[in-house]
Design goal:
This protein has a domain of 76 residues: Orthogonal Bundle (434 Repressor (Amino-terminal Domain)), CATH 1.10.260.40. The protein has six helices and no strands.
């Protein structure tokens, strides 16, 4: 079942609040799973675009270390970083939060992700 963007935003708000306000060792396991899913999605989308981490760094302005931590699911840097990553990958922001992004990707051609991201 495809998750709706509105539901995904509510899930994101929940794990963002926990990430900001709860000690790392006390984060709810379901929130940790969401953080890991976002990391897997970022890695998958980056590979789908044919980009290495260095290229994503150059396009997004997010450091190598931050990208590595996000993709490993060991940290979530927040919405502003997700927006930068989504713009660099030229995908809708909600694709970072859903496991259904491969289905959406099949329905469209994969334009080159080189140069400046477009709005």
């Amino acid at each position: 079942m495809i998750q709706k963007p509105e539901k995904l935003f509510v899930v994101y708000q929940r794990f963002h609040l926990q990430r900001c306000c709860v000690p790392k060792d006390q984060i709810d396991p379901s929130v940790r799973q969401e953080i890991q899913r976002v990391g897997r999605n970022i890695a998958g989308l980056r590979k789908w675009r044919g980009l290495g981490q260095e290229a994503l760094r150059d396009l997004s302005g997010v450091s190598d270390r931050q990208i590595q931590h996000m993709e490993a699911g060991s940290s979530d840097l927040g919405l502003s970083f997700h927006i930068r990553i989504a713009r660099a990958l030229r995908v809708p922001l909600f694709w970072l939060y859903t496991e259904d992004w491969p289905r959406f990707a099949e329905e469209q051609e994969c334009p080159e992700a080189e140069g400046e991201p477009q709005d």
